[in-house]
Amino acid sequence: MTEEESLHAAIQEDIALHPYEATWPQAFEAERSRLLSLFPGELVEVEHIGSTAVPGLRAKPVIDMLAGVRSINDAERLALPLCQSGYATSAAFNDSLSDRKWFMRWANGHRTHHLHLVVHGGPVWHDRLAFRNALRSRPALAAEYVALKTQLATAYPHDREAYTMAKTGFVRAALRQA
């Protein structure tokens, strides 16, 4: 498989939830260290978010990372260097986002990492961490989330956007309770 074929396969990859893997935190730490060494002083902080950051939670085996930058302009400026260091992105998708920039890393036709660049300490930064922390500290909430994700993965196995949008109400409700 060529690199172009691998990227296309990763972009089109179906949604499939996997049992928690104890290797996910190490995969995060390895990529966090790599990014911090590639962009010293550019990334204020890098956090592991998403379901792979919650021990015991079923998840798509994609390491979600939240990287804090000083401004959204800094995030935009980092787009090309990130793409030159193993990430891909959609310029059209990123142009539709005012509060963050999104990147994907892949290997062998599968997504391995999602990287969200956001303003460090801003609303998105706080919300993403608050949701992760709520899932980590409230097992009943995490169980509800897994049940919803399982249902949505069955309903939208080929539509990542619909899958993600369908989780929005749950995430907002959890944040209101946090």
From TrEMBL:
Annotated Pfam families: GrpB
SUPFAM superfamilies reported for this sequence: Nucleotidyltransferase (SSF81301)
PANTHER family in the record: GRPB DOMAIN PROTEIN (AFU_ORTHOLOGUE AFUA_1G01530), GRPB FAMILY PROTEIN
Protein name stated in the entry: GrpB-like predicted nucleotidyltransferase (UPF0157 family)
Organism expressing this protein natively: Hydrogenophaga palleronii
Source species taxonomy: Bacteria, Pseudomonadati, Pseudomonadota, Betaproteobacteria, Burkholderiales
